[in-house]
């Protein structure tokens, strides 16, 4: 009878150790973390956020975290993340029981220069997690520009006359006179008969001897699928420059670039002859904001373009300055 008692006690003891061992193994489970995609390719006109996802297998057994390093693009300039990136590192929280984790990657149009490539590396994991085989991913974004049509009537000047530059447009100052007077401002719609923006470097009595050049640049426009794109705009120029005007190109211009992204000075620009002709044909002796009619852009079919309206003024600012007004800019595919 004692032998049976001893045997029963031994069986119970072994069973208890077995169950205890199973509990310990469950607490020590390590989950593997991998990127679900090793390449993200996005060709877009709206620069939508990208959700970058990681798979956790088996599901996390405890709260933890994952660290991702992002290189190849400037955080805060070319992109932002949620959770927010610190330096080059994004820390993603992981909740117990989770089988996935993710963060949001949002490109910033002004900083991607038409194309962005970001390299992602899964560099570290917290308690209960380890890295798997897919620890690298690449995000490539091509900004194809705004889809047609572009219709800008500068109605924003009615809401805030201090904000003449529409969203997505750029005022680029190539050279500014000492008075700082060569800037695009809202025109008087009541006087002109329509909304428009204008630039006039004239400053009464100024002896400043610096010339001015300032551009108004459209957003990048996607003509990759256009068949018969046309540009039209309202234009008014006032006064002719002097005979010794310092700019051989003239006081006014319309330029087009197929490689503009952020900096106008780093892009290649070409005079759009039809637009330039429409400007110089406008009578400088009267205030007459008039439409150009449709100007053929079909030479740029298949391209992503930007259009610049250019104003130049000589010195001194009290003398050799003219006025340029631009309104109702449209680019359509007819």
Offer a concise description of the structure:
This protein is mainly β. The chain is 14% helix and 41% strand. The N and C termini lie far apart (103 Å).
Folded structure, characterized:
- Helices cover 14% and strands 41% of the residues.
- It is mainly beta.
- The strands form four sheets. Strands 11, 13, 16, 17, 19, 20 and 23 form a seven-stranded mixed sheet that branches. Strands 12, 14, 15, 18, 21, 22 and 24 form a seven-stranded antiparallel sheet that branches. It has a five-stranded mixed sheet with strand order 5-7-3-1-9.
- The relative contact order is 0.15.
Key descriptive features of the protein:
mainly beta; 5 helices; 7-stranded mixed β-sheet
Q: Tell me, what's the shape? A: elongated
Note the total helix count.
5
How far is it from the N-terminal to the C-terminal residue, by CA? Answer: 103 Å
Question: How is the biggest beta sheet arranged?
Answer: 7 strands, mixed
Task: List unreliable stretches of 5+ residues.
Answer: 1-26
| Series of secondary-structure elements, N-terminal to C-terminal | HEEEEEEEHEEEEEHEEHEEEEEEHEEEE
pLDDT average, as an integer?
A: 89
Radius of gyration: 31 Å
Query: Would you tell me the structural class of the helices and strands?
Result: mainly beta
List the topology elements.
Elements: H1 2-27, E1 31-35, E2 39-44, E3 50-57, E4 64-71, E5 79-82, E6 89-94, E7 100-107, H2 109-112, E8 115-125, E9 129-131, E10 136-143, E11 146-147, E12 150-152, H3 156-159, E13 170-175, E14 184-186, H4 189-192, E15 197-200, E16 212-217, E17 221-222, E18 229-238, E19 252-257, E20 270-271, H5 273-281, E21 290-291, E22 295-296, E23 304-313, E24 323-333
Parallel strand pairs: 1-9, 2-10, 11-17
Antiparallel strand pairs: 1-3, 3-7, 4-6, 4-8, 5-7, 8-10, 12-24, 13-16, 14-15, 15-24, 16-23, 17-23, 18-21, 18-22, 18-24, 19-20, 19-23
